[in-house]
Amino acid sequence: MKNTAKVSKVVLAYSGGLDTSVILKWLQETYGCEVVTFTADLGQGAELEPVRAKAELLGVREVVIEDLREEFVRDYVFPMFRANAQYEGEYLLGTSIARPLIAKRQIEIARATGADAVAHGATGKGNDQVRFELGYYALEPGIRVIAPWREWDLGSREQLLAYAEKHQIPVPRDKRGEAPFSQDANLLHTSAEGKVLEDPWQQAPEYVYSRTVAPEDAPDTPAFVEIAFEQGDAVAVDGAPLSPSALLARLNELGHDHGVGRLDLVENRFVGMKSRGIYETPGGAILLAAHRGIESLTLDRGAAHLKDALMPQYAELIYNGFWFSREREMLQAAIDHSQTAVSGTVRMKLYKGSATVVGRKSPNSLYDQELVTFEEDAVYDQADAEGFIKLNALRLRILKRRG
User: Fold this and answer.
1) Rounded-to-integer distance, Cα 88 and Cα 76, Å
2) Proportion of the chain in helix, strand, coil states, percent, rounded to 5
3) For labeling, which of 25, 89, 175, 325 is most exposed (least CB within 10 Å)?
4) How far apart are CA 42 and CA 71, in angstroms?
């Protein structure tokens, strides 16, 4: 039900595309309010200055465009990768992890500009509406939220185009046709869903992929790359120190060239339905494998297994939009504590769609070659294993005798 309370100024998450441009004008028309547009550069690869010109053409006086790539990777992507987070065991959460940062900046801009509301362009069927709004309310409990897709009667692309034409909203000629699928992109990933991808039995057309070459077309010679870690975060590639965003960008280049990071997934949305998505996370796939590689050398078994047990809960919290929740912060504290000794270097082999650990070393290594050797050693008495086995077998033997 529409909230008819007066709105004086609203901060809109604005991409400059058809949907948010129509939303901008609709907010002005419906609420008679001033609109502040906010566009975040998260590494989506689009030129953003035309977004400013379009917003100004539509009467916006306050246009905010910010380069948040470094903050995005440093404060959101890297903490998530310390947890090896994968939703439903596969999805690297590329869209999910971007939403809390956008929500945070919208709230901060609302405070700075005196806005009494925020708005987004997420539909009423998807996860993003939940992620945005949980972020808003967690940071500013009394904020007014406007979600046009849940209020207006513009239910199709044709209606959006008609509204745009009526209100003289520029729509490029190549954007007037029906889009074959919807897409979201940032420095971590690109996702595609809908339309041509809706039948989960049909293989995704090759033109859907934009961040990776087809694995079969990748070079016949593998590439080797060394990634250095300090306390769980990647800090250098092939010996060259890089900032978080530059490092992820470099891994994206390598992953692109070797067809790494493609995923065709049917997932369970938080709102209750299943959806099919095509994800490309080239740098993220390399980073995940490398991080697990350095952890295998430096994490104690108990800590490693506990992290693996906590990971699905952590990933689900991010997927469902609870980045700013107390429980996510509690899990993050435990995960970050586990990373104090996770430093060293991992050597990766990239070859036709795969990213494989082929070497790892660390000054904090718990690997003891004297203990694991099959040759004679003076450290481990093999006879001790008999008592260990019998103690562990005790409950099994008691159960068998009873039955």
Assistant:
1) 19
2) 45, 20, 35
3) 89
4) 9
Handedness of CA 303, 94, 318, 195 (dihedral sign): negative
- Which residues are identified as catalytic? 19, 99, 128, 182
pLDDT one-digit tens code per residue, 242-297: 999 999 999 999 999 999 999 999 999 999 999 999 999 999 999 999 999 999 99
Distance CA 339, CA 299 (A): 8
Distance between CA atoms of residues 26 and 129, nearest Å: 18
Helices 157-166 and 18-31, packing angle to 10 deg: 60
Cα separation, 304 vs 295, in Å, equals 8
**Closest among 391, 365, 309, 315 to 80, alpha carbons compared:** 315
| Number of structural domains the chain divides into | 3
Q: What angle do CA 387, 389, 392 make, to 5 degrees?
A: 110
Global pTM value = 0.94
155: its two tokens: 């239910």
Direct distance between the N- and C-terminal alpha carbons of the chain, in angstroms, rounded to an integer? 62
Q: What is the pLDDT of residues 175-215, one digit of tens each?
A: 666 678 889 999 999 999 999 999 999 999 999 999 999 99
Same domain, 351 and 397: no
CATH of the domain at 62: 3.40.50.620
| Burial bucket for residue 386 (CB in 10 Å: 0-12, 13-18, 19+) | exposed
Q: How far, in Å, CA of 244 to CA of 53, rounded?
A: 30
CA dihedral of residues 353, 237, 96, 10 (deg, nearest 10): -130
Q: How far is CA 362 from CA 83, 145, 146, 240, 347, in A?
A: 19, 49, 51, 17, 12
Q: Which domain holds residue 136?
A: 9-68+95-178
> Can you tell me the distance from the alpha carbon of 390 to that of 386, in angstroms, rounded to the nearest whole number?
6
